[in-house]
Specification:
- By secondary structure, the chain is α+β, with helices and mostly antiparallel strands.
- Among the domains are: about 110 residues, Alpha-Beta Plaits (2-Layer Sandwich), CATH 3.30.70; about 100 residues, Chitinase A, domain 3.
- It is about 50% helix and about 20% strand.
- It contains eleven helices and eleven strands.
- The strands form three sheets. Strands 6, 7, 8, 9 and 10 form a five-stranded antiparallel sheet that branches. It has a four-stranded antiparallel sheet with strand order 1-2-4-3.
- Helix 5 packs across helix 6 and helix 9 crosses helix 10.
- The longest helix has about 35 residues.
């Protein structure tokens, strides 16, 4: 095996297979073929080799190449001690194999860089400025107020009350065209919050409701453009009659022990305060830890300099763009049925926008991978099991369902999961060895 450097991240591996090995593979391939084919005049497995060679030479040559290339490529990779990112093996039709002759082929590989790790633990750990945030009484009180808002109930407003921001209107609405009811434009008992600016049946009702009272009817004219997809209304004006059936206002419960009991298994307001405080402190602790880890990742990226494998960057970039386009499609009314050309333009724009972040992710991923290798950090079955349990809880599915999804994704999905866990463990290692300055 000869290795030639084609660039900082590329190597050419010229791999030669000895004639003896070639002959062995030919013998195995013809033996297997003899068992499978049925040739008139010969018992199964007894056809002469010369006859098989005459009829099936090309097929057998391809089988031998398919058998030799992956085996000897794997051996060459191990012998060269390199970590390939992308492998380019010549197409079958471009390589030939013959009996009694050594077989050679060239594989081009893109490799991961060799990373010289900088300081990340004693005697020179990463130094972090202490995050001094704490949970204040005011924040706990605010959380209580949010809870109180959630427990509020709607009650009829005093007689004669006019609609204002924060009030709720119970509406009946119906559209007519040329004085005839229009199918699909009727709604009864619709609850509309003033100040939300939400439309009803595509109609902006709010400006017409402000200052109105229970029992009043407002008439709203809605003109539709000639290009509107509903041909019934395209280029026409529909009249909507909106009846205010009632006006309601939120009534907040008193903050007392009874309120606490209504919220769940609590006996007193003090108990619910303490629970809120504990939850907020747990969330803040996690937020502070995430903030420290973000700083660590930023420092690692700033202090390490090496060439990035283009293939890894392109893979990461493609995944980021695909995810963004899919999330846009899931949002109603946000280009869900955009034509292919528009999507293509979007993808190009997103690629430019996300490229620096894709490069940063690949860079820190490679640093953490090198760090894990140096520190002997590995991913255990227990780590995998814990991560599957966490994912199941996050997406609200059973552990069995998540496991099934990972298996369905094949080896690549499992490798991605392992890589992510390994990176998290390596980052945890640096964080535990960092120095937090008071």
């Amino acid at each position: 095996m000869e290795m030639t450097e084609l660039g900082p991240m590329k190597r050419a591996l010229k791999i030669e297979v000895p004639a003896d090995e070639v002959n062995l593979r030919f013998a195995q391939a013809y033996s297997e073929l003899n068992r499978q084919v049925r040739i008139p005049g010969f018992r199964p497995g007894k056809a002469p080799l010369q006859l098989l060679e005459k009829r099936y030479a090309k097929t057998i040559e391809e089988d031998v190449i398919r058998s030799l290339v992956p085996d000897f490529y794997d051996r060459a990779i191990r012998q060269a001690g390199i970590m390939p990112v992308l492998v380019e093996i010549p197409p079958l039709e471009r390589v030939k194999v013959k009996k009694d002759t050594p077989f050679s082929f060239t594989a081009t590989v893109e490799i991961k860089p060799t990373i010289e790790l900088r300081d990340y633990k004693a005697p020179n750990p990463i130094s972090l400025k202490q995050d001094q945030r704490t949970v204040t009484d005011e924040q706990v009180q605010k959380a209580l107020e949010v809870l109180r808002e959630q427990m509020a109930q709607l009650h009829p407003a005093p007689a004669g009350a006019v609609l204002a921001e924060g009030d709720y209107a119970v509406l009946d609405i119906e559209g007519t065209l040329d004085n005839k009811p229009l199918d699909g434009t009727a709604k009864t008992g619709h609850l509309h919050k003033m100040g939300s600016n939400a439309s009803v049946l595509g109609v902006d009702v709010e400006p017409h409701l402000a200052g109105k009272k229970e029992g009043e009817v407002v008439t709203i004219s809605q003109a539709y453009p000639a290009s509107h997809p509903d041909t019934r209304v395209a280029g026409k004006t529909v009249t909507f009659a909106c009846t205010i059936k009632s006006v309601k206002r939120k009534q907040l419960p008193a903050l007392d022990d009874e309120f606490a009991k209504d919220c769940g298994p609590y006996q007193s307001l003090q108990e619910i305060r303490e629970k809120l405080q504990a939850e907020m402190e747990r969330a803040l602790k996690k937020d502070i830890e995430d903030s420290y880890k973000d700083t660590i990742l930023k420092r690692l990226a700033e202090t390490h300099h090496f060439d990035l494998p283009g293939t890894l960057v392109e893979r990461e970039l493609s995944a980021m763009v695909r995810q963004q386009l899919q999330s846009r499609q899931r949002k109603p009314g946000d280009g869900a049925t955009a034509p292919h050309a528009a999507q293509s333009d979007d993808a190009k724009q997103l690629q430019e926008e996300y490229r620096p972040e894709a490069e940063r992710r690949v860079k820190v991923g490679l640093i953490l991978e090198a760090l894990a290798a140096k520190e002997g950090i590995t991913v255990t079955n227990e780590d995998l099991s814990n991560e599957v349990t966490r994912l199941a809880s996050e997406v609200k599915l059973s552990v069995e369902e998540v496991t099934r999804m990972i298996r369905a994704g094949g080896q690549e999905t499992l490798d991605d999961l392992r890589s992510r866990i390994l990176a998290d463990k390596a980052l945890d290692f640096v964080y535990k060895h960092a120095m937090i300055q008071g």
